[in-house]
Amino acid sequence: MNAASAAPVVVVMGVAGTGKTTVGELLAAELRVPYAEADDFHPPANIAKMSSGVSLDDDDRAPWLDAIGEWAHGRDRLGGVVSCSALKRAYRDRLRAAAPGLFFLHLVGDRELIAERMQGRQGHFMPPALLDSQFATLEPLGSDESGAAVSVDQSPEAVAREALAALGRASEGHDPDPRASGEEARSGGASAG
User: Fold this and answer.
1) Reduced to 3 states, what is the DSSP secondary structure of residue 81?
2) Which of 28, 58, 86, 110 has the maximum number of C-beta atoms within 10 A of its C-beta?
């Protein structure tokens, strides 16, 4: 699939520690479109709050989601990839209100794997202690949402390949069931919260 034919705007979503940045950058490179890091859209107050181990509330997230939605809207028909946890359906709906054609790539994995990855991260403001709240908040993609779930129990390159395949199916008019890939990993993640 090349960027010229479909020019999708992809939101790489999931709980912290799933590899959204790594996979997002790989996917953007393959599609030859810009990549945007959702963390860069957070106002300083949000970063300070999370750094101190306090979860954001919906009021904190609203301007952040709006800024991401504005970026995605600006990439309509041009293509782009942005990471964003997008844990709740309401958050994804807010993003779609700004940029209706979004494709959500949900990176899924069980809590144990994600916790292990988070322990190994250096210099990130999201402490591992907030992982449980992320799993508790997570609402997986619904069958009516454009997107796909991909398990992260494989290499980032393999995840990106699966994502490209799902995008290809969507661009050919085969709207993929977002639950089609990674169902087992999602089930493990949902029960962890």
Assistant:
1) strand
2) 86
Q: Where are the alpha helices (DSSP H) in 79-155?
A: 89-98, 111-120, 131-137
Number of separate domains in the chain: 1
Model pTM? 0.81
Which three-class secondary structure state does DSSP give residue 35? strand
Helices 20-31 and 156-171 meet at what angle, rounded to 10?
50
**Three-state DSSP class for 111?**
helix
What does the pLDDT look like over 99-156, one tens digit per residue? 999 999 999 998 888 878 776 555 544 555 678 888 999 999 999 999 999 999 999 9
Domain range spanning residue 98? 3-192
User: What is the spatial distance between Cα 139 and Cα 142, in angstroms, rounded to a whole number?
Assistant: 8
Q: For the domain that residue 179 is a member of, what is the CATH number? A: 3.40.50.300
Cα dihedral 14→119→24→123 (10° resolution): 120
Residue with tokens 């390949």: 161
